[in-house]
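Reopening this one. Same input as before:
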Amino acid sequence: MARLSGDGTSLVIARVLLAALIVPAVAGKLAMAGEPVAGGEPAAPPAPPEVTEVSPKWAALKPPAVMLLKEIEYTVSSDLTYRIRERRRIKILNKGGHRFSEVIVFYNTLSETLEIEEARTIKPDGEAVALDPANVRDVKSTALLVYTESRYKRFSMPSVEDGCILDYTFVKTGRNLHLSREFWKTLVIETDIPQERVTIRLSVPQSKRVATKLVPEQPAFEVTSSEHEQEYGRTIEFAMRDVPPLSTEPQAPPPPALGTRLIFTSIPSWETVWKWYRGLSDEARRPDEAITKAVGEVIAGAATDLGKARAIYNYVCSKIRTVGLQLGPHGYQPHSAASIYENRYGDCKDKAILLLTMLDVAGLEGSIVLVPTDAMAQVDPDMPTLDQFDHAIATLVVGDTRYWLDTTGGETAFGDVPVRDQGRIVFVIGKERGEFMGIPVQRADENTLKNTGTAALAADGTLTMTERIEYTGAFATMFRDEYRYDEAAVQRRELAEALNNFCAGAVLGEYAIAGMDDLADTVVYTRAYTAPDYAALADDLMVLTAPLQRIGLLELTALAERRQPLRLGQTMRREGELTLTIPEGYHVRNLPKPVTLVTDVGSYAESYKVNRDGAIVCRNRFELSVPVIEPKDYPAFREFVRRVAREQRRIIVLMKKPSPEEGDDEASEEETGSTDDV
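Same output, byte for byte:
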């Protein structure tokens, strides 16, 4: 179950599960294979002959391992408890596949039981070596950095060697803590290794309606489905063969968005979800005397509704710390606003509830919002389920403007939206109804990084710089997140390291930062630094590149082509203007020519000129207008970024003025700025 922790936990769990090849499972009373479980549920049908060999199709790929068989039996009893029995048969082909011998299965102690039904290693000679039950460890999930009843059972398969088969089965039984009369599940079919055969069987009582959907409807592998009625109820089976591995490219969308999803649900409609969650949030959203008093203090001096909303938002961001709380029913249910305020901590939904409660006191009514962050697939509006969301925020309309308010990280300015929330289809729990909306992607002019500076070159090539850098939008959020709570010495060291990534050998001098603690729209970072040997000397020449911020992004262009979208994370605009004073006794010999590049995904401009004081004025401006590059647009994006990098490597050439006896042969206007590349 993807719970609303909003702290990255769901993503961590998803990666662990993918690596361990464990799909989250479920519950009921444990039964041995082939036996009926409580309530008269159907027994599993006879198993087909075991597959022991890898097909030539997958062997040719030389994967570390191949899933010979994956079977998932999801049975809902008449009392609406559930039981999931899952079996895996994995053939190990080389040492890289030995990682699959470390098995981790998560479960929730409050609502589930977990048993390892069988685990054995079948050696290449056919000998079966059973797992010693004493080697199964039951471990609390402290690594998840949240307060939770989540635990996992972990075991190491015995006698693992190349050519062996790992064969294990586990059973979970339980009941949903939320909407307990309903059930739902989203399964991602692909893993990071090929799968020969996958079978998913869902059995439900006659009394329950269930909807199923395969997304996309035509996956890249063979799928057959069947359905039959029996005395107990209805059984729906999906049989899949030759499932290819899900290999992700750098900065591609997450596996749930790239893979094939099988979704099933008994929830009748999104209205059911809205009514249920509206009840939970209304119950929690009740101010007490302490909250009412605090709101009066927080909004004192705020003359407008927007000013009140900003003040309350900043308070929750800065004064209420984020702690993952998934204890008992609180995977989805917020704690009371009074307890959140008293304790001064909460998870994403708790902080959203406190924010909304304080806004209520101030006479501003907002709504809680269920969000699938960019670690998830977009919500399928045809399939009402809870596990399509992993985060909760608030929304508020002031005047004609809707604001999306995510206080979880605490570093995002009012009016900005964390990158992980942008572009997502969300479910707003409104007063009168639930409604799907899209959170907009912030424009490039809302995510800016602007440098202005004055610099001077000495005759020995040393550069002395005074610079002002302004960050807005996502850049401001990242800067706060990186440096806001550093100790002074640590902050200076990290800023110096960042400077040296741009200008090797630079020594950071005095610096100041404004706009950090008050969550201002703009963070302003001013710094002074010196860079010995910045310019290279050769006889009477001095050669350098303009000390403008490098655009970078070259690491995103390593692939010649892409099959999957490239997530840039954000739109952006980066601007720089530098006035560079040259050493006495030198004149400008050559400047790079002006450049303007315009593409469908962005633009770049760069120019140089000598002003009336003899200083060089350098300007550049880079803009990316989209946060995602589709595969068809990647070649053009790749060439664009590489062209920008080439332009930024062009050099400025200064020359010593001749002595009086040699004549005063200044560089002509035709010479200055005449050379594209020296």
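So the earlier flakiness isn't reproducible anymore. For the record, Residues 197 and 241 are 5 Å apart (CA to CA).
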